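Here is the promised in-class demo. Please do not try to memorize the tokens; focus on the logic of going from shape to residues.
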């Protein structure tokens, strides 16, 4: 492992990344003192830019760190991500263009704007915003954990300890906060293109290198049952868990504020449909990356890094999260390993920026401005910029405070899904029906959150680790699916007996 070459390439490409982030303020220039210019890139992203931006929204550390790690540790169950990602784009084609059309006609900036306007309900709009903000905190934390894994491998053969990783993360987030502050979603868009190119190079290069360096890989797969991960066949006890993880995640993904941000930044409805129809390409990449969680068992030098007890300063608390970075530095030439590690690293930074922008929008526009309607647009943008920086460092502090075992960091994303899927009735279904009343939606939303958090707490406390499924006589079921079922049932029943409070605006 040529650490000097890897580190040099990493730093050179990171400098290019930073340049693009700051240069974006001058790219397709607009008045960044207007909220739609700063947070939605002026709503002018064409087919390919929307494709790369939404891909960066969704192709995150979840894809190239958390899923391979989970497959490495638990096998077939976590291949649920493959049907989930492929099916969620079909849902996006139903949901996205309709939401874009409604929000564009009324000048909405966030999903909460739509809910607030649809029902003329400040309370429901604020509640939607709070759920969106909170649901993204564990998702941003997951990006940071993925970046930690990269730094742990990058600094493996240096004399620098875990404190160097922490300092590097803080510096990276300072840079990210600075160019997000100045460039907004434009910065995220240009760096998303750069990041996605690097990631595709990484995926292809690692797979080619592994398959050409491992002899008789077909025979090795025949011995998969002897691996610690168990088997490639789904255990009967995991069937419901697999199915509900896939279904629940598919319906949850496009309800996240950062996904809505990506939808609303598109230039027109036709280009949004086209860019969305191309996104299943990312599903192919995810399937290939998930496979790396198993292929690492056939590369002893990479497996040694993953199982080492010295990575990260005395105790390898990252475990399987090192799978893809470890493969990169062991099967690729040093210069290409530097490209791969930088791609994975900024693959956490770019989504974190987009997520923090969407959180800042919700806070300023749908909470602060609701209670201070005299807030000028210039002040709103300035508040959103500072809020975006604060949210990034809150998530960073959360990881520093909590982190000692993130081998199954995928649970962080699933935890966010338990919360965000509760917006399914108010943000998705109301685009197509006038049946629901605002009081019923609010009651169902609150009930779904309460049920989800109680089940989360009960299952996690009983197992001693963060869990997002609930054990039932037929097997584990994703908590999000149970909670949103309760939510929908309450919303349907109460709406059927509520005479007033129906939508005040057409969808």
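The designed amino acids, position by position:
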């Amino acid at each position: 492992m040529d650490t000097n070459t890897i580190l040099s390439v990493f730093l050179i490409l990171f400098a290019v990344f930073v340049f693009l982030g700051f240069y974006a303020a001058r790219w397709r220039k607009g008045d960044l003192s207007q909220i739609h210019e700063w947070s939605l890139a002026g709503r002018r992203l064409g087919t390919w830019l929307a494709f790369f931006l939404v891909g960066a929204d969704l192709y995150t550390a979840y894809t190239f760190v958390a899923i391979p790690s989970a497959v490495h540790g638990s096998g077939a169950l976590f291949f649920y991500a493959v049907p989930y990602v492929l099916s969620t784009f079909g849902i996006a084609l139903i949901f996205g263009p309709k939401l874009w059309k409604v929000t564009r006609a009324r000048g909405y900036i966030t999903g909460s704007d739509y809910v607030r306007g649809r029902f003329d309900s400040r309370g429901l709009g604020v509640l939607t915003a709070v759920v969106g903000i909170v649901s993204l905190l564990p998702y941003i934390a997951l990006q940071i954990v993925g970046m930690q894994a990269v730094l742990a491998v990058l600094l493996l053969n240096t004399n620098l300890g875990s404190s160097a990783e922490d300092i590097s993360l803080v510096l990276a987030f300072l840079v990210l906060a600075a160019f997000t502050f100045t460039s907004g979603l434009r910065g995220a868009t240009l760096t998303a293109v750069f990041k996605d190119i690097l990631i595709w190079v990484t995926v292809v290069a690692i797979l080619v290198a592994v398959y050409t360096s491992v002899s008789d890989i077909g025979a090795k797969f025949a011995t998969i049952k002897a691996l610690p991960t168990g088997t490639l066949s789904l255990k009967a006890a995991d069937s419901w868990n697999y199915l509900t993880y896939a279904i629940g995640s598919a319906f949850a993904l496009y309800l996240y504020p950062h996904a809505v941000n990506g939808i609303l930044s598109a230039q027109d409805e036709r280009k949004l449909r086209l860019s969305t129809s191309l996104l299943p390409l990312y599903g192919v990449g995810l399937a290939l990356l998930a496979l790396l969680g198993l292929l690492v068992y056939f590369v002893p030098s990479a497996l040694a890094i993953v199982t080492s007890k010295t990575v990260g300063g005395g105790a390898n608390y990252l475990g399987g999260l090192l799978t893809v970075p470890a493969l990169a530095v062991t099967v690729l030439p040093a210069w290409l390993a530097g490209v791969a590690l930088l791609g994975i690293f900024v693959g956490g930074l770019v989504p974190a920026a987009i997520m923090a922008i969407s959180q800042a929008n919700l806070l300023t526009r749908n909470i602060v401005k609701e209670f201070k309607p005299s807030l000028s647009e210039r002040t709103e943008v300035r508040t959103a910029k500072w809020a975006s920086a604060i949210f990034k460092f809150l998530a960073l502090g959360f990881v520093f405070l909590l982190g000692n075992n993130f081998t199954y960091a995928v649970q962080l994303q699933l935890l966010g899904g338990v919360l965000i899927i509760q917006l399914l009735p108010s943000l998705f279904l109301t685009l197509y029906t006038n049946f629901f009343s605002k009081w019923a939606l609010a009651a169902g939303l609150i009930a779904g959150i309460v049920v989800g958090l109680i089940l989360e707490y009960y299952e996690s406390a009983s197992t001693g680790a963060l869990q997002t499924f609930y054990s039932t006589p037929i097997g584990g079921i994703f908590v999000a699916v149970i909670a949103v079922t309760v939510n929908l049932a309450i919303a349907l029943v109460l709406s059927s007996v509520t005479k007033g409070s129906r939508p005040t605006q057409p969808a």
